[in-house]
Amino acid sequence: MSGNTTYERREPASTRPHEACEASRSANPVDDAISYVRRTVRENPETAALWCLGIGFVLGWKLKPW
Questions:
Q1: Cα–Cα distance between 24 and 45 in angstroms, integer?
Q2: What secondary structure, in 3-state letters, does 7-53 show?
Q3: Which residues contact 48 (CB under 8 A, 6 or more apart)?
Q4: How many Å apart are CA 35 and CA 66, to the nearest integer?
């Protein structure tokens, strides 16, 4: 091992232009997810209904009061 190790100084993440653009594209991930789910349900209403029925059945079965 040598004692001649050099380290490069990194810039803060906010000053990097590619990361700033990437962050501005997806500023609201919750809104993006909601719009994705709405679009998917409009395209496949039968599949969405079956998923809701299945999830409701499993939750009702696991959370029954007795």
A1: 32
A2: CCCCCCHHHCHHHHHHHHHCCCHHHHHHHHHHHHHHHCHHHHHHHHH
A3: 40, 41
A4: 38
Confidence at residue 39, expressed as pLDDT on a 0 to 100 scale: 97
Task: Tell whether the torsion through CA atoms of 53, 57, 59 and 60 is positive or negative.
Answer: positive
Q: pTM higher than 0.70, yes or no?
A: no
Per-residue pLDDT tens digits of the chain, which is 66 residues long = 566 767 677 666 555 555 555 555 668 999 999 999 999 999 999 999 999 999 999 999 999 876
- Give ∠ CA 63-65-66 in degrees, rounded to 5: 115
Domain boundaries, the chain: 17-62
